[in-house]
Amino acid sequence: MSNGRSTPVPRRLVRAGVVTDIAARRREDVRAALASLDRSELRRRVRAASDPRPVAERLAGPGLHLIAEIKRASPSAGAIAAVDEDVLARAHAYQRGGAAAISVLCEPHWFAGSVADLSAVRAAVSVPVLAKDFVVESRHLDLLRAAGADLVLLLAVLHPGPRLGRLVDRALALGMEPLVEAHDERELDASLATSARLIGINNRDLRTLTVDPERAAWMRALVPEDRLAIAESGVQKPATVRAWRALGFDGALVGEALVRSGDPEAAVRAFVAAGRPPTDPANRDRVPFVKICGVTDAAGIDAAVRAGADAVGLNLVPGTPRALELREAMALAAHLRAITPAGSRPAIVPITVDLPVDDLNRIGEALDADAIQLSGHEPAGLAGDVRRPVWKVLHLPASDGASDHAALATEVIAAARAHLSAGAARIVVDTAGGPHPGGTGIRVDADLVAAVAREIRVILAGGLGPATVGQALRTSPVVGVDVTSGVEAPRMPGRRPVKDPLKVALFMKRARSARIDRPNLTIRPTPVHPGLLEVDAHGRWGMERDFGGRYVPETLMGALGQLEAAYDAIRHDPRFWAELNELLEQFAGRPTALYRSDRLSEAVRLEARRLLANAVPRRGQRVDPPAVRLYLKREDLAHTGAHKINNALGQALLTRRLGKARVIAETGAGQHGVATATACALLGLPCVVFMGEEDIRRQAPNVLRMRALGAEVRSVTSGTATLKDAVNEAMRDWVTNVETTHYVLGSAMGPHPYPTIVRDFQRRIGDEAARQIADIEGRLPDMALACVGGGSNAIGLLARFIGEPSVRLAVAEAAGDGVATGRHAAAIAGGTPGILHGSRSLMLQDQDGQVVEAHSASAGLDYPGVGPQLAALAEAGRLEVATATDREAIAALRTVTRTEGILPALETAHAVAALPKILAGLEGSGPLPEGAVVLLGFSGRGDKDLAALERFADVDAWTGLG
User: Would you state the torsion angle of the CA atoms of residues 889, 890, 893, 897, taken in this order, to the nearest 10 degrees?
Assistant: First the structure.
């Protein structure tokens, strides 16, 4: 086989069978090269080659990894780079940019590559090198290994299944990692029938050279998750790599886009960055706890640490396959501590069965254990006597062993609560039975696990491995997983099982990525009525399913059905959410800050004290308001100055999915209009915003912003010329232009599916805040509080905490001149059930069911209804309601500005104004405890409300400020 290069032929006519032509010519090259070498010389060269560089465990690390390709030409593109290009300079640039491996074309006639290039690149870099060739026979592999290849490409299209399997085995025997490439399902089946660990999905059909950019996306689901999946071809931009990462690909092979780049190092860096897993607080909050159990040697400890395990289990149960003597466990614990810094060390958890408490405490002391796992029939009261945190294992039937799920789930939940009440720190569920105490390595009944995990926090063990853990985590709301046999190497007779480092790494990767970019999965217990969390098939909320629905003209039913179908298709599509996540981070400025406002907190307490002094005492009222730690979720720092950008960007992307060419929106305070105009400008969509004439007058700066962004602002003069009337006009426009137009509704109200859509796009607020506050305080807040009008800000903050019984949920409504006057916008506190804007919810109406106009100085809260999910929460008693008048909100606005140097929106100021009343026990469901942690949704900034400050010039900040 000549190591020289042929001058590339001009771009060829693409025709079926081109891959066969290339392979036939390559067979001639290989046979010529082999004819010049006797077998002993070839074996000598193979033995003399540098040791192969491992790549599989690197690819099994978090995220998608780049295999950067060096090529000069291709049959589809013709010449790409100069024949005399300095491939070593390019290889160095790829390595500096962060490529996990470098692919080198070896085929000389169509791709202008050579084995000499392979050898030179391999000698020049330290990363693994892939021989990108058209391998035609077994000894071809020897030639490539002798040239230094660490990986080798094998094309399923070229070989019958049995021969493909033999080539894979031969490559592995030579120490090379085979990357077996498939283009269709038949080729994929043949690839999966081999022992290859790396499976490539090529968007390009090598028979015709045509590219299907969606092929890798839909075929990824066909590759078992215990294989490493590599996507190939059709990559022009890093956004494609980001989408592939979201779909679960482990690597991407990118060539032409890098070769054509003027700065290959920078280009590689961009693709590498696109493959990294997201690290934002909302996604971090979805990462499960992972324990690697049954570790028997130092290599297993090393593998668990490298993979990032949260805990390591050491089995101290005599007679079991992985049993350790105490001294052996002590040595492994010491080794773990020696190789990890204290702050990132996995927890050390000895596994025990039915030991006396003195023995448990002795083991805990000897190992300095972080917790002790009880895997037998220990009584609930035992946990209180153990001096270390206790993890209790409860044994459940296997996947085919449960008959009465409801009864058994109730029994298991009761047992778990008994152990937790006695002091257990965690509950693990595993399968019962088997020859040894403890688990069996068989999957627990999935429906039973889901039923238990909806009520209590559990870690799932039993029958898990890299191929199954992702699906298990997506279908059951367990908070963690525990694996033993699923990450072990093949058993050796007479020896303890040992961990397979690749399986450990891949298990960790699949577990930690299972819920990333899937914000609408249920991933933890939600012990509340399902109707408070999600709609039924008819779009109805509530314990009686009496809120929500779709009450619209027949002309809109089709559009709403289309919208529902389109949103259902993306609601759990990680590609969509990854794209939105990137926009939210890079364009909108997420995550927004969580700020502890100590001066404002003290001012709130002083105001609560003043209110108490002037109030008529009532039962349960505190003598002195508590001091609280007040955290502000700073949505005012998001692009456009409020939370509205979250929903606007999401619905703008949804508009593209719908194939609509025009966007309309309504706005009250102008923030939703500005956000929608901003998103439409970004994505090139024409935008019309309907705004009440009164709100145009009150919010002139935002009107100017919308027009500057290219939006048409249409004045609405009907009714009171405020938000309600703007919604009416927007819906009339939608009825007329439904085929071409998407209505970007700004609040979590309206006909189904809008309350769900807006909630899902806004839930990022609470998802971020939960992780941020847990990072600081080590726990969730005692109360989450938000202002509420239609409800987008409120449900965005509160959705994360609905299923958290320890967190009180509260909203502050606009009381206008006072609820007792009738001039207010408090639809929950002062409303009744009715139908408004296509949905049944709480609303302001008279005895004849006619809408009563809302009154508030805050344009964003000046709405006579509230979203149906919030109405359902209030009806169920899960939502506390407080109010603030216009003047109280202005006083709070001035107070925030003077104590913290932050100018809040007038809407936000209502939540601040309500907090002293809650602390004093005057509103809400009672006072908070001393030292409570309060999370307040800081929905927007107040530069738009400076005119309101002038109108209420006689209202000052709270008294007693320092």
Answer: -160
CB distance 794 to 871 below 8 Å? no
| 313: its two tokens | 């289990």
Are the C-beta atoms of 354 and 393 separated by less than 8 Å?
A: no
**pLDDT tens readout for residues 475-517:** 999 999 999 999 999 999 989 999 999 999 999 999 999 999 9
Q: For residue 753, say if its preceding peptide bond is cis, omega within 30 degrees of 0.
A: yes
Cis status of the peptide bond prior to 213, with omega within 30 of 0: no
What's the CA gap between 701 and 836, in Å, rounded? 29
SS3 content of the chain, % helix, strand, coil (to 5): 45, 20, 40
DSSP assignment of 214-280 equals THHHHHGGGS-TTSEEEEES---SHHHHHHHHHHT-SEEEE-HHHHT-S-HHHHHHHHHHHHSPP-S
Q: State the pTM of this model.
A: 0.94
Comparing CA positions, the residue from 74, 508, 574, 509 lying closest to residue 251 is: 509
| pLDDT-based confidence at residue 359 (cuts at 50, 70, 90) | very high
Starting from the edge strand earliest in sequence, which strands make up the sheet with 628-634, in order? 594-596, 628-634, 932-938, 783-787, 808-816, 879-885
- For 39-91, what is each residue's pLDDT tens digit? 999 999 999 999 999 999 999 999 999 999 999 999 888 899 888 899 999 99
Average pLDDT over residues 113-139: 97
Element at 612 (helix H, strand E): helix 598-614
Residues facing residue 549 across a β-bridge: none
pLDDT at position 77, please? 86
Distance from C-alpha of 453 to C-alpha of 894, rounded to nearest angstrom: 46
| Residues recognised as catalytic | 644, 666, 939
Number of helical H runs and strand E runs in the chain: 36, 32
Q: Is the pLDDT of residue 435 over 70?
A: no
Contact (Cβ atoms closer than 8 angstroms) between residue 781 and residue 807: yes
Alpha helices in 839-960 (DSSP H): 868-875, 886-900, 906-919, 946-951
